[in-house]
Amino acid sequence: GESVGLHLPTLSVQEGDNSIINCAYSNSASDYFIWYKQESGKGPQFIIDIRSNMDKRQGQRVTVLLNKTVKHLSLQIAATQPGDSAVYFCAETRPGGGADGLTFGKGTHLIIQP
Amino acid sequence: DAGITQSPRHKVTETGTPVTLRCHQTENHRYMYWYRQDPGHGLRLIHYSYGVKDTDKGEVSDGYSVSRSKTEDFLLTLESATSSQTSVYFCATTPGQGDSPLHFGNGTRLTVT
């Protein structure tokens, strides 16, 4: 399988519990943020996004919170399931950054315990 | 996702040999990207394309070249592979830029011995 999980922070949660994955972003001017999920041996998969004019956005079982004051982004996963095991990483886009204006975080490895 | 196919999925090659990785998309997205993923790093942009025959360099473009002769195909070439280019390479697409999420292929694992 893919070794992208090595050297990453790890979050271990019990199946059924809620998970909170955090991300500190670097550019206070960034205006668009994305969470991706990456399973072993696969490419990153879009989960949810949020623009800087919002503080919170909800999807199916996932919520993203944006705190621009401290440049912090979090992903909450409700009722975690075994299929949620993956590496999760955030990405930020600087305004007017164009195609090369996207910066990815290094990720957090989420492990679901039965 | 977004009908992105990367080939090959795995390749082992020797130092100094040329290597070409292929990305094919079926969504007619204008923008295509090549990233590499290494332990301890976030995804890093190698090159990108904003249309047929329109390409530009990313953060880690040294040692790589790209070509886009058709909307659906984006090729990444390592002219003379080095061990530092051992990595997992991902192709991605978007219909627009800056404010829409990337759609990724499933990657090519390249090992340079």
Protein model, in words:
The complex is a heterodimer of chains A (114) and B (113). Chain A has strands spanning 10-14, 19-24, 32-38, 45-51, 56-58, 62-67, 72-77, 86-93, 102-104, 108-113. Chain A has 114 residues and is mainly beta. In chain A, a hairpin with a 3-residue loop joins strand 5 (56-58) and strand 6. Chain A is globular. By secondary structure, chain B is an all-beta fold. Chain B has one domain: Immunoglobulins (Immunoglobulin-like, Sandwich), CATH 2.60.40. In chain B, strands 2, 4, 5, 6, 9, 10 and 11 form a 7-stranded mixed sheet that branches. In chain B, strands 1-3-8-7 form a 4-stranded antiparallel sheet, with no helix packed on it. In chain B, strand 5 (44-51) and strand 6 form a beta hairpin. The radius of gyration of chain B is 13 Å and the shape is globular. The model of chain B has no long low-confidence stretch (mean pLDDT 94). The interface between A and B is medium-sized, with 30 and 31 residues.
The percentage helix of chain A is under 10%
Q: What is the terminal separation of chain A in angstroms?
A: 21 Å
Mean pLDDT reading of chain B: 94
Structural class computed from helices and strand pairing of chain B: mainly beta
Given the C-alpha coordinates, what overall shape of chain B results? globular
The helix content of chain B, as a percent range, equals under 10%
Question: What tags apply to this protein structure?
Answer:
heterodimer, A: 114 residues, Immunoglobulin-like, 6-stranded mixed sheet, 4-stranded antiparallel sheet, globular, disordered N terminus, B: 113 residues, mainly beta
